[in-house]
Automatic annotation (TrEMBL):
It comes from the Bacteria. InterPro entries: Cro/C1-type_HTH, DUF5753, Lambda_DNA-bd_dom_sf. Residues 18-73 form the HTH cro/C1-type domain. This is Helix-turn-helix domain-containing protein. Pfam families: DUF5753, HTH_31.
Length: 288
């Protein structure tokens, strides 16, 4: 079983349990940090699953929290051990958004709002090859190839036979109109969008220009949900130098409401397919 454990999700579950133990003890992260002679930021990163946690860390924290049940301590120690295993993405070296990939790999459903480009899970190789260096202009050629390979590997979740990712995408019209790479690349990309949108577990909706002002104008975001009740939903907001993960119930609720408004303003799934097909035709026409 351990070889199939998702280290990112295991770290997250472990962090949640450590936070619960701290709160039961009535201690603040600052107080724990003072007891262990570490920084408060380390305690916070351990609890939110953004930092690798050692069995020694778990032992020390259980000591501070006076956990006397050895079965609990042993269970947490095993979780720490499992969390230090490597996911498939580690084979590609240092990937800046590896935490997100770990969550995406384990997610049961994913809702995406994207305003400027086609989401990575739905990109063709040609589109990915054009858009990645455009968004990361200083990326070295070998790193570009690595990013493309990771992106294509991530897409296996969409078509996984036993447990396909339930994917819902609201896409701004601008993502269909902007010429990334060439009109040929765009035509192939939009044809692929139409094809994928026919899958029973994939929904693609277009938010046309004439929809006017909408809830997504403050920025793009994704909402990940998991089958295991122990794993709370996560809102992911990608940044240039760092990413934001929101897990508080109130935050997730606000973004969920925003997404419902976006879905309501967007074209229906069928109308969106027709819209995307027309956009693909306009790129074909532009090729002459």
């Amino acid at each position: 079983m351990a070889s199939h454990v998702n280290p990112t999700v295991r770290r997250r579950r472990l962090g949640q349990e450590l936070r619960r133990l701290r709160e039961l003890k009535g201690m603040t992260a600052e107080e724990v940090a003072e007891r262990l002679l570490v920084s408060q930021s380390k305690i916070s990163r351990l609890e939110n699953g953004r930092r690798s946690i050692s069995q020694r860390d778990v032992r020390d924290l259980c000591g501070v929290y006076e956990v006397e049940d050895h079965r609990i301590v042993d269970s947490l120690m095993q979780m720490a051990k499992d969390s230090r295993q490597q996911g498939w993405w580690h084979a590609f070296g240092d990937i800046p958004y590896s935490v997100y990939i770990g969550l995406e790999t384990e997610a049961a459903s994913l809702r995406i709002y994207e305003s400027l480009l086609v989401p990575g899970l739905l990109q063709t190789p040609g589109y990915a090859e054009a858009v990645i260096p455009g968004t990361v202009p200083e990326l070295a050629p070998d790193h570009l190839e690595k990013r493309i390979q990771v992106r294509m590997r991530r897409q296996e979740r969409v078509n996984e036979p036993e447990r396909p990712l339930r994917l819902w995408v609201v896409l701004d019209e601008s993502a269909l109109r902007r010429v990334v790479g060439s009109h040929l690349i765009m035509r192939e990309q939009l044809d692929h969008l139409v094809e994928v949108s026919h899958l029973p577990h994939v929904t693609v909706q277009v938010l046309p220009y004439d929809a006017g002002a909408h809830a997504g104008m403050s920025g793009t975001f994704s909402i990940l949900e998991f089958d295991d009740a122990a794993d709370s939903s996560v809102v992911y907001i990608e940044g240039v130098t760092s990413d934001l993960y929101l897990e508080k119930t109130n935050d997730v609720h606000k973004y969920t409401i925003m997404y419902e408004h976006l879905r309501a303003q967007a074209l229906s799934a069928e109308a969106s397919r027709e819209f995307i097909a027309e956009a693909a035709k306009s790129h074909a026409d532009a090729m002459g």
